[in-house]
Design a protein that fits this description.
The complex is a heterodimer.
Chain A lengths: L12 E8 L2 E6 H22 L7 H21 L7 H19 L10 H23 L17 H13 L1 H34 L1 H6 L1 H37 L4
Antiparallel strand pairs in A: 1-2
Helix pairs in contact in A: 1-2, 1-3, 2-3, 2-8, 3-8, 4-6, 4-8, 6-8
Chain B lengths: L4 H12 L1 H22 L5 H27 L12 H30 L4 H22 L10
The chains are: A mainly alpha, B mainly alpha.
């Protein structure tokens, strides 16, 4: 009995929506889970803030806590001017967090374990930084690539390095989230596979021995929950750091 | 590596939300004070006293850290160090990203300009330098150029 640890990442077309040229645009399980996350977040925030009572209910305080948490992250990283990007960062954080958490439930699909999704998010951030920086500061924005106090004869080299460093941001930004989720889910699946393999090979003794990998799964599950939260947080805070560059490019 | 993980994560994650926590614990502390005063009887006075002062000390520290970021707006990187694991992962991806971008640009230049292999050689080296710069920035060894002034 072979267990394929990659099978969980398969994108399955649920029903076709449209056809452009020869490319079929389909509603996939990935899209379904994204939609579920968006609906879930919207419901959580709308229901949570509907009553606006002075003494908050559990749901309301959870909604308020998530707001406070992201708001203080944005303020401490990008300054109070960065608060105009709060909706953007909050959306990113909540979306990634929810999608990661949904992915931890067995038999679900983890949207962020696909690099195309995380790359799309990272490129959105990258373009936001670039376009806002250029719109706000004009060509002055490129001062970001010209550090001060560098001797003129190595300045061209430094500028090249700075530009490469800037361009490499969306890559590290997306790969980090994607690789964390992918690796975590594969590890979980492999350990779960051990139980079935042992049970299949050694019968009752194998099933009894399966307690060990099962204990490992429990521990890994706790770790994955932390990773799911942490990666959403890291993604949000790096977004703030990059936005900070767009708001204050080298003065 | 993973053992230190949860605690540092939680502390880092809630450092930002420390405001609420701190206020909550003030309330708890003052309430505890009131009930103790009414009864006028303590089971273990020295321990209690020490615990209370330790708690107040912690509250003070937490308030200080919670208030600091809003006052001076530029203190990135600190909160990004959520845990050693995440930090290590972040540093490695930064380096790899720099090298990959350098190699990609070099390869494309080679193809477009037909200067193979010089584009790849030069941009791979530049990409490596950019990766190292990324890592040093992420680790806080070098300050960002927009922070120096």
């Amino acid at each position: 009995m072979a267990i394929d640890p990659i099978e969980q990442f398969q994108v399955i077309s649920l029903f076709p929506i449209a056809k452009i040229g020869h490319t079929e645009i389909a509603f996939t399980n990935s899209a379904a889970f994204m939609l579920a996350a968006v609906v879930g977040i919207t419901a959580f925030l709308v229901i949570g803030t509907a009553k606006r009572s002075l003494v908050p209910s559990r749901l309301q305080s959870a909604a308020e806590l998530s707001y406070e948490f992201v708001a203080s992250t944005v303020r401490s990283t990008a300054g109070s001017e960065g608060m105009k990007f709060f909706p953007f960062v909050f959306t990113l954080f909540m979306f990634i967090l929810t999608v990661n958490m949904i992915g931890l439930v067995p038999y679900t699909f983890t949207v962020t374990s696909h690099i195309i999704v995380t790359a799309a998010l990272a490129i959105t951030v990258f373009l936001t930084v670039l376009i806002y920086g250029l719109w706000r500061h004009g060509l002055h924005f490129f001062n970001l690539f010209v550090p001060k106090g560098v001797p003129i004869y190595i300045l061209p080299l430094i500028v090249f390095i700075e530009i490469l460093s800037f361009v490499s941001r969306p890559i590290s930004h997306s790969v980090r989230l994607f690789a964390n989720m992918l690796a975590g889910h594969i590890t979980l699946q492999v350990f779960a596979g051990f139980i079935i393999l042992m049970g299949g090979a050694m019968g009752a003794l194998g099933w009894a021995g399966g307690v060990l990998p099962f204990a490992m799964i429990v521990i890994l599950m706790a770790l994955e929950t932390l990773v799911a939260f942490l990666q959403a947080y890291v993604f949000a805070i790096l977004t703030c750091i990059y936005l900070n560059d767009a708001i204050h490019p080298g003065h | 590596m993973t053992r230190a993980y949860p605690l540092s994560l939680v502390s880092a994650a809630f450092r930002a939300a420390g405001h609420n926590e701190a206020f909550k614990s003030t309330r708890v502390a003052s309430m505890a004070d009131g009930t103790r005063g009414n009864k006028g009887e303590r089971k273990e006075p020295p321990d209690d006293e020490a615990a209370l002062s330790a708690r107040l000390q912690r509250l003070g520290d937490r308030l200080a850290t919670a208030n600091r970021p809003s006052e001076n707006d530029f203190s990135p990187r600190q909160t990004a160090d959520a845990s050693a694991f995440a930090r290590g992962f972040r540093l490695s991806t930064e380096l790899v990203a720099g090298v990959v971008v350098g190699a990609l640009i070099g390869w494309l230049l080679d193809r477009w300009l037909g200067i193979s292999p010089w584009g790849l050689i030069v941009f791979l080296l530049l990409g490596f330098a950019a990766g190292v710069l990324n890592v040093m920035r992420a680790a806080g060894v070098v300050r960002d150029n927009n922070l120096t002034d």
